[in-house]
Amino acid sequence: MNLPRRSFYHPRKGKSPEKALESRISDICLEFSGYGYRRVTWQLHREGWNINHKKVSRIMREKGLQCRPRKKWVRTTDSNHGYRIYPNLVRDIKISAINQVWVADITYIHILVCFVYLAVILDVYSRKAIGYALSRNIDTKLTMDALRMAIHNRQPKPGCIHHSDRGVQYASADYVKELEFYGFQISMSRTGNPYDNAYAESFIKTLKSEEVHLWEYRTMEDVQKRISYFIDDVYNQKRLHSSLGYRPPCEFEKMLTLTHNPCEDTLIALP
Q: pTM of the entire structure?
């Protein structure tokens, strides 16, 4: 073809596949700082990349993209009260439908001069955050606002289990009355055992490591804006959950509507 030999070895212009892969992995880790190599690999597969998890792990290690360490957990539960304590109903239960078990918890978020508090409710089956509320006060109104948001969003049938710790905000007369009015079965964790409310604890760890610890909130408005965005747009819509087959909660629930789950219509009250 009358071409010099050096033309055959001339590199093609444009970004190489390896560089494109590294760039995409960096973008995923920047958006989801809590992702390990497994979740990053699944996200790449969802986008059409044919990539092995070992290669993803190597690139993340070489580029310093491993998960950031999580800060120490701080206890916020005050169970020193005179209200009734309910038994744990979810300890050995098989969860097989949405609106079968809800879990609730509270955490703190530091702003410039004080703390604000977040109450959240999750549907255990889909891991979706279905209700949440923020307040400067850690009281029953905080948890009640989160509960009412969840009820408004889900309209659960009687028999749904509401599980929480033994904190006064969940054991108070007003909160229990609200649960009984809507036909919830009330369940509480054992004293000082975070594993009894592991689903809620896991959500809070994710929230702290992938959102709260990455920002320096100055005002209550900063917290409201960022937390709402993270829960509604990131956690529920985008973040992959290994327990859901590496799908986001909203996508998982949408999938359920295509394959009707009869368990949702036949919740049986536990004795």
A: 0.71
